[in-house]
Amino acid sequence: xxxxxxGTCGLALLIAQQIQDSTSHQVLxxxxxxxxxxxxxxxxxxxxxYGSSSSLRxxxxxxxxxxxxxxxxAQLRLIxxxxxxxVRRFAPAEFEGRPGLQTPNSILDRKKSAxxxxxxxxxxxxxxxxFVCGIFYERFAVGGLRAxxxxxxxxxxxxxxxxxxxxxxxxxxxxxxxDALSSLCLTxxxxxxxxxxxxxxxxxxxSEMSLCGERMTVHSLITLIGTCRGRPLNPVExxxxxxxQYQLSITSNPTQQQRIATHLATAEGRYDFATPAYxxxxxxxxxxxxxxxxxxxxxxxxx
Length: 303
Ligand SMILES: NC(=O)c1ccc[n+]([C@@H]2O[C@H](COP(=O)([O-])OP(=O)(O)OC[C@H]3O[C@@H](n4cnc5c(N)ncnc54)[C@H](OP(=O)(O)O)[C@@H]3O)[C@@H](O)[C@H]2O)c1
Prior knowledge:
Elements: E1 2-6, H1 10-22, E2 26-31, H2 36-40, E3 44-47, H3 53-60, E4 65-68, H4 72-84, E5 89-91, H5 112-121, E6 127-128, E7 130-132, E8 135-136, E9 163-164, E10 169-172, E11 183-187, H6 189-199, E12 208-210, E13 214-217, H7 218-229, E14 236-238, H8 241-250, H9 254-267, H10 278-282, H11 291-298
Parallel strand pairs: 1-2, 1-4, 2-3, 4-5, 5-6, 7-12, 8-11, 10-14
Antiparallel strand pairs: 9-10, 11-13
Helix pairs in contact: 1-6, 3-4, 4-5, 7-11, 8-9
The structure holds NADP nicotinamide-adenine-dinucleotide phosphate (NAP).
NADP nicotinamide-adenine-dinucleotide phosphate (NAP) binds next to helix 1 and strand 8.
């Protein structure tokens, strides 16, 4: 089976690597640029122009499944081309919270709702699924998400989400709108890639597939970070949805808006879902990494 992975962000490359290393499927990496590094590692790559439907159609010829990490109008064009090329299945760039809880056209949307609507309209020709994994562990990486070649167009620096593990400060959306403790699910990108690749062998894809490394309250997350770093976060600014909505209304800085909107989404439970998650139950042989292990290992060399 020929599987196209669109984009060369850290997640796309982990998925491509897993397909290449652990399956007999053929993987094709779609990128706007030549990728000599990937080609030299044996990957088949195709340069594409998202502005040209013939370029997209040419790239998707003979492709069974597309895994997209590309957002915005580029992804909408990729979906159109996939339908024209009779691609069987398409996984859009989701890999975060439950789609039903996302706000269309919000600062976090990046035309993902438009992509879902388009995919729904083509459901009789092409299956699609949203991989729902919650927050990537890598948001807490040394150097932030950006150090993992992901999130170039969002607030993705070190300390941009909840906790600054270098300076041990935190801004934590711990309460939901009912003043109860908010919860979230988190997964390492490596485990996301493992589940995505497992799902390639499923005969049919449901419209959503959840997978999870760990589920916890934001309050427990703050405690866990302190344990892994050997000292507590201090100070911690506790946040709730109404405070966050107010902050959002008075901020004009786009990076700040994204940070606040992501905290608001967390407080509202957008990254929370029932566990054991769907793919964890389907593939109990996939052993996920704990956040405790990941954080301790990742920050071991940083005092
Ligand atoms: N759960 C989480 O915590 C979390 C956090 C961040 C992201 N995500 C998810 O991860 C996926 C990737 O996110 P991302 O923020 O890295 O997406 P992105 O900035 O849109 O980049 C993804 C890929 O899109 C391609 N691309 C196509 N047109 C582009 C353009 N005009 N500008 C920049 N890149 C373009 C790039 O590949 P080429 O340059 O090779 O063409 C790039 O590797 C999404 O599904 C997102 O929802 C999840």
